[in-house]
Amino acid sequence: MNGISKTLNDMTLVERSSLLDTVADALEATAEEAEGEGDARFVANSVCIANTIRGLSGALGPHDLRAAELLLEQGIMLVHQFANRAKPRGMVH
Asked: Half-sphere exposure of 48 toward its Cβ, with a 13 Å CA cutoff?
C-alpha cells in the first residue's frame, strides 16, 4: 500500500462498495474456517456482521457513512482477532 489512505467520505461509491465487499468476504471466509474448528460463536458473529455490511453496501448514502465505518471497524477487528487467537494445543494452522 503505497498510496495515501482515504476515509469513506473521500471514496467514490465504487470504492466504498469494493471495501465493504472485501471486508464481508473476509468475514465469511474466516467464518468457514471457524466452522471447521467448531467455533459456533465466531461463525454467528462474523456472519451477522458480514450480512449487515452487505445489506448496507447496496444503498450506502452519505448519511450511512458513520454506520459503515463502525461496521467495517468491527468486521476488521473480528477477522484480526480470529487470525491472532491462541490456538488449542495440537491445532495446526
From this structure: 8
Q: Domain map of the chain by residue range?
A: 2-80
How far is Cα 42 from Cα 40, in angstroms, rounded to an integer?
6
| 15 alpha-carbon distance from chain centroid | 15
Q: Where are the alpha helices (DSSP H) in the chain?
A: 13-37, 40-57, 65-83
Distance, in Å, from the CA atom of 37 to the CA atom of 27, rounded to the nearest integer, reads 15
28-86: pLDDT as tens digits = 999 999 999 999 999 999 999 999 999 887 777 778 888 899 999 999 999 999 999 86
Residue labelled with grid coordinates 462474523: 46
